[in-house]
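Late entry, evening session. Most of the bench is empty. Finally got around to the prediction I had been postponing all week. Sequence below, unchanged from the version circulated by S.P.
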Amino acid sequence: MVEFFKKQTANAKDDILSGLTVALALVPEAVAFAFVAGVDPIVGLYGAFMVGLITSLFGGRPGMISGATGALAVVMVSLVKEGNDIATGAGLQYLFATLLLMGVIQMLFGVLKLGKFVRLIPHPVMLGFVNGLAIVIFLAQLEMFQVDGEWLEPGKLVMMLGLVGLTMGLMHFLPKLHKSIPAGLAAILIITGIVVFGNVQTESVLSFVQAKGGTGIKGGLPSFALPDVPLNMETFLFILPYAVILAAIGLIESLMTLTLVDEITETKGSSNKESFAQGLANVVNGFFGGMGGCAMIGQSMINVNSGGRGRLSGIVAALALLAFILFLSPAIEMIPIAALVGVMFIVVIKTFAWSSIRMMSKIPKADAFVVVLVTVITVFFDLAIAVISGIIVSALVFSWENATRIRARKRVKEDGTKVYDIFGPLFFGSITAFNSKFDIKNDPENIEIDFIESRVSDHSGVEAIQSLILKYQKEGKQVRLSHLSPDCKAILTKANPKFHNVILTDVNDPRYYVMTDNSNFI
């Protein structure tokens, strides 16, 4: 019992310190993504706070961090711009209305238990997702070295690079000396102390916000308000496409980050519960003036690598972020951007799947292609498009490989019956190869097709069998089918009652369903 409480205390300490580290890293990210989306920085900070708090309390993956993300911000910028075109200054209100619909879609996704489909994402797609996001995080940090699209002047750039390198060095060596404080938090505090007390001139959180057009990060508590948009069909049709896209991107990034954290922590989260919590968080954002969000792979990696494993880490990160907004903005605004960039660069190094480079020559070429494809599309286009493209390519490769695996062994019984023993799956992709196995004109009068080593996977396969029977019958030959599943038999006899005499029944008949309609997915 004593050991149990010691463990709980240790976990609480790790979660609290890790949460503080994450909160510091959330500030510039939320501000930057708010500017990307075309909204005020406080909207991004509110969004990060509300999404982070609600998903930490009710989500399905303790230790995972959610907040305002760039993947959503790049879609929101078009939404806000079009909203402003409808009515001056209305873009933000249309964003809030879209978040409400987006959240409802995500909640329905969780209620209908559709989160399980994340298990269908192939491993090469997962590797491409991780590598792509690592590169995106790296490229996002480069913006911290720029002002109005121009690189910092040489002196400031060298100073900032030096502090970034020092931060990374501290994060690498501090754990070797002492592990009681997360290396990220310790490095941020040390670099901030050097800059403040050494009067070092470098970019800070305040100067970064001001350079982006803001005044600071101080604000009050978010307040409840209904989105000020017309409640009509025109508004609904305008926000619906954006809501669907944002919901899809948010769910894909969240559920794939959940899977990654599962692998790192060797525990299992609930994808359905996380989907519902993400939706609830975005609905709350729509009512309380935040920009919404989803899981953040960078901050989640900071949390996990700093020892954050429980819900407390995410709760502390969210509440600390709120405290920064309400009370501690002067202190947070002094933090050097270089310290936060250094922390994120370490995240990039630890997030990128370096093993995927070494294995490229060892894995199938199709898998290697999928890894590269998903990585490139994630970087240059969109996360959702990247993952969907990777899944489609993987599915096509899988179908092609299985289509070539169908074989037929031919033998003749003592009574002269020619038997075709079918091996491999019979589905839409293998029908052509299946039909090529039969010599209808030259076969004897009695034919038996044995499916004991095959599986009829879809309705196209059943149709192929039906067509083959009719071709044999047209030639005046008798066909018998053996070892079909009850489902195949029912479909064939329903299509043609005369097929009842063609099908042989045996105690060894396999039992499986054929994909014909939604009833088979229950």
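Two things to note before I forget:
Strands lie at 66-67, 146-147, 150-151, 294-295, 407-412, 418-426, 446-456, 478-482.
The first strand starts at residue 66 and ends at 67.
Will write this up properly tomorrow.
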